[in-house]
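Why this split exists: single-chain examples teach little about how molecules sit against one another. For that reason, every record in the complexes split bundles all components of an assembly together and asks for one structure covering all of them. Below is a record exactly as it appears in the raw files.
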Amino acid sequence: MRESIKPPVEIRYQKELAALEAADTARKPQNWRLSPQAVRTFILGSQKPVTYQGESISIRKKYFGNDALVERCIITLAGNRGLMLVGEPGTAKTMLSELLSASISGVSTNTIQGTAGTTEDMIKYSWNYALLLAKGPSRESLVPAPLYVGMERGILTRFEEITRTPAEIQDSLISVLSDKVLNIPELGDDGFLFAKPGFNVIGTANTRDKGVNEMSSALKRRFNFETVMPVREVALEKQIILNEVGELARENGIDMTPDEEAAKLLASTYHELREGVSAYGHRIDKPGAVMSTAEAVSVYYQTMISGYYYGDSSIDMDCLVQNLVGAVSKENKDDLGKVKEYFSTVIKDKSSKEGGLWKKYYEARKWLK
Amino acid sequence: MEKILRSKEMAEIVLLPVRHHSPACSFHVRKMIEEYHPSVILIEGPENANELIPVMVHRDTQPPFAIYYSYYDKAGQLSEEKEHYKCYYPFLDYSPELVALKTAGELGIPAAFMDLSYGDILAASKQGAGLRKKEEKNNYNDDYLLSRNAYVKKLCEKANLRSFDEFWEKYFEIDGLSKDSHAWFLDLLLYCRQARESTPEEVLQDEGSLAREAHMADMILQAAAGNFPKTTAGSGTLSVTKRQTQSSDKGNTSSLPLRILAVTGGFHTPALSALLQESSPENALSRTSLSEDTSFQVSSPAAPSTPGRKKSAKKVNSREQNVYLMPYSMEAADALNGYASGMPYPAFYQKVWGKSSEIPDDCYRQTVLDLLVSCGKEVRRKEGNLSTYDEICAVQMADGLSALRGKSQPGAYELFDAVLSSYVKGEYTIATNTPMLILRKHMTGNAVGKLCSQAHVPPIVQDFEAQCRRFSLKTGSTLETEVTLSLFSSEKHRKESCFFHRMLFLKTFYARRVKGPNLQQQKDRNLIREIWRYKWNTQVNAALIDVSVYGATIEEAAGSLVKEELKKEIGAGACAILLTKVFEMGLKEHLQNVYDRAQELIRQDTDFYSLADALSHFKMMRELSSLYQSKLNFDLLMELTIRKLISLLPSMAAVKDEDLGRCMDAVKLLYQLTKGEIREEFFEILIRMQKDAQIHAGLDGCIHGILYGGGWEDSALVEQAALGYVQGTKEQMKKTALFFRGLFFSARDLIFIGGQILNMLDAFLQQTETDAFMELLPELRMAFTYFTPREIDKIAEKAAALHGRSGRDITKLKEIPPDWYAYGKELDTYIGQRISHVTV
C-alpha cells in the first residue's frame, strides 16, 4: 500500500539518485548531492544503465523538451543568481524545479507556495510564541521558514508561483539573493544567518494570468530567466502522455496499459488547438483555455480510470470527449464552440481519411455541449 | 613524414580532407603544408579559376571574397531553354582552401585548382540537382552532404548535441586546435567516410560528384606524372625569401620524388582515395603511414588514368564560361542565411581564427568573452538595463556550460546560452529578444571584402566605367550626386537616362530616379526632365559581376535579362509594363521581342484587369512613341486587347465592390478607344449587361452614362433607371448612391441637363432616414468627387434653389449661441434625472 498520493521526487526516484551518487566521480559544487553532470543525467536520462549494489538501474528521461535549457538551469544554480522558470501553465516548470532540487540538494520539499496571501514570515521565519514568551527571542523559539532552512542547510529553496505574491513580499528576497545573508534583528548580535554554500532559489512563474512584468527590476536582476515553451512536437507530446499516465497508473495500482493510438489522438488534438493550425493545414480558432500537456495527461488519466472502474479497461472515446469538454470549458463558454468547430472540420476530415479510432472520436462529438 | 620518402622513383600523394570555413581545418592545413612541404598542391575548385590565384593570395586582397562562375548555355547543350547559370565560391580569411593557397604562395609551392570547370560540372549534374538546383544563389562548395544525413542525426542524439554544427564545433574545432594535425585529419576522415557511406549513390551521381571525383583523381595522377597546371600561387607578387626559394627549388628537382598534396572537401576524400587505389592494379600505389589510407605512393612518371571513369559525355564550350573574383560580405557568407555552406557565424570564427595562432588553448574563451562584452555594450546602449554583473554571470554561464558539456572551452552555442540566460530579462518573447538579435548580428559580422588593384576587371564593369566617363559620372566618391536630364531635348541626356534605367533594371542599386515621367504608373507624364541620384560603391561592382553572366556590356546584360523575363509566365499587364521599361532603357532591338510576346500573352491572358492595364499602357506608349522614337505598331496590339476585353466584358457585370473603380476605368477606356464596328459591338454588350439582374449598381450607372454619351440612350432613359433605384425596395434603394457614383463617373454633365437628376437626388435625400444616410454618405461623397469645385458650386446653387434658398444663404447661416448649447445640455441632464427618478 502506498503511503502518500504523490511521493516527493527524491523518494520516487530514490534508487536512481542513490545509484547516480555512488557512481558520480565528477567535481561537485559544495553541498551538492550530485555533480552537474549527474544532475543532467538524472533529468535528461541516459542510455547506459548504472549499476548500484549489484542491480542495473536505468535512468529514465524525466523532462522532455529543451535539453539546453536544463543545462543552463543547472549552471545557473551553481552560480550566484537564482533561477526563474517562466512559461505557460502546464509546461512542467514545477516538475523541473522539483527534479533539480531533489538531485542537487536531495530534497524537493523546501518550498514556499506563493499566493496573494503569502507573507514575509512564511518565507523567512516566524516565532513559536509560547517559547518566545518563556525564553525570549532565541534560535530555539524561532520557527524557520523555507528560505531560512535553505540558507541554514545549504540547500535549494523553491518558490512556487512567485508572481502571485504581492510585489513587496517578492522584494524581501532581493537582499538575501544578493548578499546571501538574512538579518534577524530580534536575535541581536547573533541575528545574522549567513547562507551556506549550496543555497539558491528556484522560482516558478506563470505567464498566463499574472506575468513577470510587475516584478521589480531589482529582483529580476537577481535571477536568470528561463522561458519554458510548450512541447512543439506531437510525437513527443504523445510520449509524455504515455509516460506520465503509465507512471500514475502504476502508482495507483491501476493495471491497465495506456493505449498509444488514443494518446496520439489526444496529443494531436491538444497540439492543434494550441497552435491554431491542423496537420492538414486547417486554420483553427484557438480556445482561450490552457491547452497544456499536463491538461492532456489529466484528461487521458481520467478516461483511463473510468475505463478501469466502470468500463472494460479500454479507452472509451465518448468518455474521452466528455473529459475533454470538462477540461476546456473552464474559463470561457465560447471555448466549447471552438472545440465543436474543430471537431466538425479537422476531426471530420481525419475520420474520413484515417478511419479507425478517429472515426469513433468524431462520432463522440455528440458530447460536446 | 620521412617514412613516405621511400624511393626516389615514386611520387607521393597525400589527400587532405577539409570542411569549408573551418578555422581548425585551416590551422591544420597550414601546419601540414609547412611540415610536409609538398612539391605541388592541388585544391578542389573549378580549374578555370586558376588564373585568379595570384589575386586571391595578394596581400592587398581582403576576404571575404568569392569566385563568381558563370556559364551561358548558348548552344543548348544542357537544356533546350539555353539558360544562364552562375555560382559562387566564397572564401573567408579562415577558409582552408585559401589558407592552402596562401601558404603555398609563401613557401613558393605551385598550387592549382583541380576540379572540372563550372560548365563541365553543370554538364555532369542532373537538372535540378547539385549546382543545377533552382536557387537564388548556388554555392560551389555546398557541403551539406557532410552535415545532413541519418548518421549525423544519430550521432548528435548520442552526443547530446543539438545540431551537426555544434557537434563539429565541439569535436573538431574547440578540441581540434590542440590536437596533432595527423590525428585531427584521421578523425575527420573517419567521420567523412561514415557520412559518405550514409549517402545514396544516386545522389552522388545526380549531383555530378562522381564525375568530379574522377576528374580530380585524374588531375592528381597527372600531377604525379609531373604535369602541373601552369598557374602557381608562388608566381604572384609575393616576395620569395631565400629559404623559400631553396625549398621551392628542392620541391621541383627531379632528384626527389614528387610530393602531391590534394586538398578537397572531406566528403570527396574517401572516394578519391578509392579511385587512386583502383588506378594502379599492380599495386604501384602503396599506402604509407601519414594517414593510413589517404597517402599513397605512385610510380612516376606513369600516370594511369582512373579506371571506371566515365568521361564526361558533354564537354561544354569554354568560351561561354566566365570566372571573376568579386568582393563578398560576411552576411552572404553566413551559412544560416540560407544559401551558403560551411560553418555559420563568420564573424565569431574570424575572431577565433585571429587568436588561434597565438593562444590556441584559450582562443574560444577569449572570443566568447569579447563578444559578450561587445554585445553587452550594445544591449546597454539600446535597452539600458544591463550591468557588468550580468556580463560576469554570462561568462560564468558559458564556462559552466562548457564544463558540463565536456568542452574544453566555451563555443558559439555556450555563448548563445549565456546571453539567453543572463542578458534576457523576463519571459523570452519578441519584446525581450533584443540581446539575442544583437548577438546574432555580432556573430555574423558586416565586413565586406576588397580585391587588390591587379584583380581582373570583368568586361561589364569596364563597360560601366566607360559609360560613367562618357557621361561624366563620378565613380571615385561614395557620396550621392544628383543629376538633371532633359529627356527630349538632348540626345546625350536621353542616352544617359537609358543608362540609369538599365542600371536600375539590373538591380545594381547605383541610381534612383527622384523625379520624372513614370511610365509604369502612368504618372507625371507631362514632365520633360528626369532627376536622378546616383552613388557608387564596391557593392555596385559586385552587383554588376553578379549579372555579368548575362552579357559583357550593360546593354547586353539588360537585354538578356529582358529575354529571361519574357520566358516567365507573366500576364499581359506585366508584359506591357516590361515594354515600358524597355522603352525607357532604349533597348530598341528588344522592343520587337517584347512586342511579340505581348501579342502572345494578350491571346492567352483571361484576366480582365491585367488586359485593361495592358491596354492603358499601350495607349500611353502610342502617344509617346514619337517622343521615344519607336516605330512599333501599337494600333494592332490595342485592337487585339480591345477585342479580348470586349469578349470578357459580359462576365464583369457582377463586379466586386473593391474592383468597381478598376472596372469602370476599363469600361471608360474601351469607350474612348473603340470605333467603327467594334464600338457597335461594345455598346451591344453594354446593353446586354444592363439587363443582367446581378449587375453591380455602380457599373450599371457607369454603363448608362456611357450609353448616354455614345448617343445610345437619352437622358429620360437614364433618369428612369435612376428612379428604379430611388424607388426600389430597401436594399436596392441603398444602392442609389453607388449608381450615381457610376453615372457621374462616366457622364457627370447629366446633372446639369434638365434638372431631373437633381430633383431625383433631392427627393431621395429627403426620404432617406438619418441612419441610412450616414451609411450612404461615403459612396455619395465618392459620387461627387468627379465634379470640379466650380461644378459643385453650381450644383449646390441649384439644390438650394429647390428649397427656395440661394447658394449664398448657406454661408449666411446664423451662428448658434453657446448658451443654447449649455441650455440644451442642462435640459438633457434634468430630463435624464427625472426619468431615472420615475423608474425607481
